[in-house]
Design a protein that fits this description.
Elements (H helix, E strand, L loop, with lengths): L1 H4 L9 E2 L2 E2 L6 H12 L5 H29 L16 H18 L3 H4 L5 H18 L6 H16 L3 H17 L7 H24 L14 H18 L3 H11 L7 H19 L3 H5 L3 H9 L7 H31 L3 H10 L9 H22 L11 H16 L2 H8 L2 H8 L7 E5 L3 H9 L4 E4 L8 E5 L15 E8 L7 E7 L4
Parallel strand pairs: 3-4, 3-5
Antiparallel strand pairs: 1-2, 5-7, 6-7
Length: 516
């Protein structure tokens, strides 16, 4: 993103240090670069995060409104009582939307990936936006929702997921044609279906014209052994990544099994199915599965009206014990880092992150204490006597996930920066190179190149046959592929730099030989 702003990379082929960024997407890089240019008074890394914060907020808001519109449909409303007293349609829809938002916040897979500046978060935001547009339409005057759907489809296509956008649109069009009990007229439904399919095709055409449409199905996974291994790996990922929403979603499918063709079940089920199949057939892994969370949260919300009290109590007790233990563990390790007591956690950190020195931050401590007190109040509220709320079973899962994330981002943030960041490696590199001269590279990953450019402010160039710079950096894992370029008569190995927490992330530092 910074390379785009500095004019060192073409806008239609984002690069870092003259090498392709490795993503088949454009819009996420444009958003980050635009924020850096519009906010020059902020550090570039902070400015580039702001659009992705907005995308996460968009995901949460779009999921709420999508479930609200689906819950307003006649098929989703509770049965009217003979003498009245049933739930108000608006209030019922708001309660289910609140429950869906809590279910989304509670999903463990959302924690890390939703806070990264990657195309995956852009895809998540536009997926939720498309889900909202399709849930709100069709309506007699639904052009605004069609405009929102067009924006979401184009955003998905430019964020590296044109195939998913096409499948979302095709499936939604068929669902509208199948559903004849919607409150809109049949002609309105037909026009809406044709419009959505046309917009999906247009977004794919745009992606093809920009070179973003590629065949991503990994045929190597189709062998029997590989397929079995992929299925088992996906199943394990599914269990923890989508907890606690997936058991509730299964309960919804069972309770609403006679109405699977209704929009409030069929639409989120189609979104979820497309993402799961795409994840299985490609190498997207957890980043691809992230797109299923808004639809999964919607399915989980529709389980609550029929959820038994014993199941709700089981969820509460499991959540209370799990997140309380996680929070306690974070506190104990932080105290050990600050005081050395207890000794074992401090020794484990010193072994896993050699060279880390803990700093005390009063602000981080205050934030962590307030979060812990809020968790204690939430537990007290949940166990106390209060008016029954439809979403009460998801309060503790959402609150517990938020508690642990806040504790990690306050008490453990310096440790996580040291363990996951590249600053220690960059500091080792700049001891052995001239920062005023250029540095050639061979086999560096995009992350390594970006770290050296941002933290070290090094002028990187891809190595040529004839050396142009006094220093050369080579990734150790890629060294074997570049033996012909590493002529001992041209280059002399002087040092190796390593990330303290990674045994395989090494950079070999070469200098031009004195003879050269």
């Amino acid at each position: 993103m910074q390379e785009l702003v500095l004019g060192l990379s073409p806008w239609f082929e984002p690069q870092t240090a003259a090498q392709h960024a490795g993503y088949e997407s454009l819009l996420p890089f444009w958003l980050g670069a635009g924020a850096i240019r519009l906010l020059p008074f902020l550090p570039a890394d902070l400015a580039s995060r702001l659009p992705f914060m907005a995308l996460l907020a968009l995901t949460l808001a779009a999921t709420w409104y999508a479930v609200y519109h689906l819950a307003r449909s006649p098929q989703a409303q509770p049965v009217a009582f003979a003498f009245g007293g049933e739930a108000n349609p608006r209030g019922y829809a708001r309660a289910l939307a609140d429950a869906a938002l809590l279910a989304l916040l509670a999903c463990l897979g959302l924690a890390q990936l939703a806070h990264e500046t990657t195309p995956a978060l852009a895809q998540l935001g536009f997926t939720a936006l498309l889900f909202y547009a399709l849930a709100a339409g069709p309506q007699p005057h639904g052009l605004r929702y069609a405009a929102v759907a067009a924006l979401a489809l184009v955003g998905l296509a430019l964020s590296g997921a044109p195939n998913v956008a096409l499948l979302f649109g095709l499936g939604a069009g068929l669902i509208e044609l199948w559903d004849r009990r919607h409150n809109a007229s049949g002609w309105t439904q037909a026009r809406w279906s044709v419009l959505i399919v046309a917009l999906s095709a247009a977004s794919v055409l745009l992606a093809w014209l920009l070179g973003l449409w590629h065949w991503r199905v990994d045929t190597a996974q189709w062998g029997q052994a590989a397929a079995q291994k992929s299925l088992l790996a996906l199943l394990r990922l599914f269990v923890w990544f989508m907890w606690p929403a997936w058991p509730l979603a299964l309960w919804t499918l069972w309770q609403w099994r006679r109405q699977l063709g209704s929009r409030h079940v069929a639409l989120p089920l189609w979104f979820f199915t497309v993402v799961c199949v795409s994840t299985l057939l490609t190498t997207a892994s957890d980043r691809g599965l992230l797109l299923a969370l808004p639809a999964l949260a919607c399915l989980a919300a529709f389980a609550l009206p029929t959820l038994k009290r014993s199941v709700a109590a089981l969820i509460d007790w499991f959540t209370l014990i799990f997140f309380s233990l996680c929070g306690l563990t974070i506190w104990v390790i932080w105290i050990a880092l600050q005081t050395g007591v207890p000794q074992k956690p401090a020794a484990n950190v010193a072994r896993l992150a050699p060279g880390f020195e803990a700093d005390f931050s009063l602000l981080a401590l205050i934030v962590a204490v307030l979060a812990s007190l809020a968790w204690a109040w939430l537990v007290k509220w949940r166990t106390g006597r209060h008016r029954s709320a439809l979403w009460k079973s998801l309060v503790l899962p959402a609150g517990g996930a938020t508690l642990c994330w806040v504790l990690l981002m306050s008490l453990w943030l310096p440790l996580l920066d040291f363990a996951r960041g590249y600053q220690p490696l960059v500091r080792q590199v700049i001891r052995h190179v001239d920062r005023q001269a250029c540095v050639e590279t061979l086999g560096l990953s995009t992350a390594q190149a970006a770290a050296l450019r941002h933290h070290g402010e090094l002028a990187l160039r891809v190595a040529q046959l004839q050396p142009q710079c006094p220093a050369l950096l080579v990734d150790r894992q890629a060294q074997a592929r570049f033996r012909s370029e590493l002529d001992p008569g041209l280059w002399t190995l002087v040092a190796a730099a390593r990330r303290p927490t990674e045994k395989t992330d090494d950079l070999l530092i070469y200098r031009r030989s004195p003879r050269e």
